[in-house]
Amino acid sequence: MSIGRYQVRQTRNSKFYEQYQKDLSLKLKYVLTLEDVLGFSLIRVHPVAKIGDTRGCPLPGLATDMDTNSNFTVARSREALKRIHRHLDAFFDEKGMDFRVQVWWEVGRMLLIQFTTNDTTPDEPTFRSYKG
Fold first, then answer.
1. What CA–CA distance (Å, rounded) separates 38 from 24?
2. C-beta separation of 98 from 107 below 8 A
3. Are the beta carbons of 72 and 66 closer than 8 angstroms?
4. What is d(CA 48, CA 94) in angstroms, rounded to the nearest whole number?
5. In Å, how far are 6, 74, 122 from 54, measured between CA atoms?
6. Mean pLDDT, contiguous 10-residue spans, the chain (132 residues)
7. Residues near 72 by Cβ (< 8 Å), separated by ≥ 6?
8. Comparing C-alpha atoms, which of 14, 1, 117 is closest to residue 59?
9. SS3 16
10. Which one of 57, 60, 116, 127 has the minimum C-beta count within 10 Å?
């Protein structure tokens, strides 16, 4: 997804909503959908474990890490999604199936890891992790 600000809508017309209803630990009222994302359609906010679990959707999580194959992973995704919904539920009109206020999702970029080499050992890259 491109860096930007996207309006959030909710839907129940999604495979994720069906999963939410079956999963007693989630039991969310709706699925968050980001509108007008260039080059994408059906951008949903849903729980994930690793980047391969999505094809462009944002990855809610409370922490990031790397697995043994150097792939980024997302930790505590379900908990993060429940926290997001807990905040938004106060503005959700279930009867009208809409939010009472405009809700926006902002996408930015943050450097997580920087790989570097030095002149004395160019075949041995080092990295610096940026965890905030």
1. 34
2. no
3. yes
4. 26
5. 18, 11, 34
6. 90 89 86 92 86 81 82 87 92 89 86 62 56 49
7. 50, 51, 64, 65, 66, 112
8. 1
9. helix
10. 116
